[in-house]
Amino acid sequence: MQDCNSIICNLAQTPIKLKQTLVALLTTMVLSVCASKAQNIQVLYDTERDCVTSTVEMFRPDGLGSTYFFVDMDYTPKVQGAYWEISRELCFWKNSKFSWMSIHLEYDGGLNNTIGSFNNSWLAGLTYSGHSKDYSKTWSLSAMYKYIPDT
Question: Is this structure's pTM higher than 0.70?
């Protein structure tokens, strides 16, 4: 693996729009990880694609539902691409008989140096879910509508 200086130098050689997006993504990712109480960071080597992939993910419950996101970044050795998903479960009726039901909103998208942008997609629907008191065990079943612009 390369040191941080090599990665930053390689990032400086990427197209300007991709570089701006990746810098914004990295800044958001770092701030989100620093502010969160529970996150997962992984780095692995993908032998099939011959690249290093880093993944940052976070799940955080709150008074109105929960937020989940993950970001995958590929390095070959420079930043080759990024893919992310962010979702929000909203439940404004926790004290009613429908407390097990929530509204699910999600955005998926990414960028890649060789293929350009992934098809961005927006998802919305209902989620039936449950969890233990400490959120150590969760489950959910969702029915969603998926919108992919320009397809």
Answer: no
